[in-house]
Amino acid sequence: MCELLGMSANVPTDIRFSFAALARRGGETGPHVDGWGISFYEGRGCRTFHDPEPSARSELAKLLRNYPIKSRIVVAHVRKANRGRVSLENTHPFSRELWGRRWTFAHNGQLKGVKRLPLTGFHPVGTTDSEHAFCWMLGQLQARWRALPKPAVLDRAVADLCAELHGRGVFNMLLTDSRSLYAHCGKRLCYLTRCAPFGTATLVDEDWRVDFAQETTERDVVTVIATQALTRDETWTDLARGDVLVLRDGGIRLVKPGQGPARTLAAPVSGPHAC
Amino acid sequence: MCELLGMSANVPTDIRFSFAALARRGGETGPHVDGWGISFYEGRGCRTFHDPEPSARSELAKLLRNYPIKSRIVVAHVRKANRGRVSLENTHPFSRELWGRRWTFAHNGQLKGVKRLPLTGFHPVGTTDSEHAFCWMLGQLQARWRALPKPAVLDRAVADLCAELHGRGVFNMLLTDSRSLYAHCGKRLCYLTRCAPFGTATLVDEDWRVDFAQETTERDVVTVIATQALTRDETWTDLARGDVLVLRDGGIRLVKPGQGPARTLAAPVSGPHAC
């Protein structure tokens, strides 16, 4: 298995605090030693850092800890390989361009027979089931529209594709088109939203404590989603299996499998303060 | 204008020496302050570092100077913007997947009316002429074959597409499919091959001197291509306008515009030693 970390915010936000916890799980506080990667979106542009080394011992991960990149969407992954050898081309997140947008995808779990799903416009560079699933999803979307559809229409289409993959095994996933961040819970994902009045938080994996009131303005809204809670003194909300969260500008909409339109969620309680 | 740097080698090779010279041209020894990027191939996998900051003052460029990545193909670029604002999505190199290969492209020069070239499977994320030209090239290749053709066939097709863009302005370009590195000379490109017996070299842009005999084995072959010579005590060979070099495993083949099959070149003299 692997672990995922995603972020959606309404202002460019520094993810280093959350990423520090995830990175330690790649060989210190967790067993995910088979590579890691992180994608930062700045508008439509995206930069991705990949390393097949364990994140807890990676020089590149250490560098990122000291290098603030402010981003409104982040997708990160630490890998424990089950299918596909340990190599750069098998290191998540994977990315492709569709409709002039840069799409990024990361997955944890195992999928049965996914390589039998037919591919059209997109093909894997590596050998993982995950990249095959990503290529299949994008091919399905490309076949349906010639240009990026409206958000609500795309939300439902992504949720339907997730439901199909959910039937094949464990499909915990993060996917973004640079506008929305989609999260599908196959087995385990949790999230929280930070907004005013901001409090403090301490990582689970090390004694790093941040007072968000010092780092933010009153209008900031930041939602973080992860396989397991990253902080020990905030309240993380578990997603149910089969749920899809759609995050835009830090706000959350929930798509339940096989149901009608997405439902906007009130942001959950986060630490000692609600928003 | 911008500057380009490419490398092809038959063994995983550390590019930091050459990249140090290029990076200084992004704001110190050259005026290319509008972002930079570098792609390293490790097998079929690729990692790219992008930064819209000037490379001479970039924290990320400094980090890479201390972080050895051994690669067989490298494409790097420092940008002086003429078309398309300074932003992450307009920062070269650009990349796409085609036929299950990761393609990477960097360009220097200006092209007239290139945005009128029709696009099919690939679309720009940013607003540069360069990314449009790249998307057009890949679309043309995709329309012609369903899977990666044999190298010699692809070489000729890439050379023909380059010739078409060459007619529209200045098209100095590096392109790779993770197997071959293509270089087209629109106005200015030069190269050298380092192989046994290895000598020493000193950068043009700073007093960094390397004795390659200490860093290599007798069988290593490394070809470096750049807009302007990077070292002051080696002999760089200028390409003629319209020439396409095809680099595989450090070896060089020259495709002259409008002529028959590619011609294998004897590697040129490099410093005090020939190979």
TrEMBL record, chains A, B:
**Entry keyword Transferase:** yes
Cited CDD domains = YafJ (cd01908)
SUPFAM superfamilies per UniProt: N-terminal nucleophile aminohydrolases (Ntn hydrolases)
Q: What residue stretches are annotated with the Glutamine amidotransferase type-2 domain? A: 2-250
| A GO term for molecular function | transferase activity
Listed A to Z, the keywords are: Glutamine amidotransferase, Transferase
Q: What Pfam families does the entry give?
A: GATase_4
Q: What is this protein called?
A: Class II glutamine amidotransferase
Query: What is the organism of origin for this protein?
Result: Methylobacterium oxalidis
Q: What is the lineage of its organism?
A: Bacteria, Pseudomonadati, Pseudomonadota, Alphaproteobacteria, Hyphomicrobiales
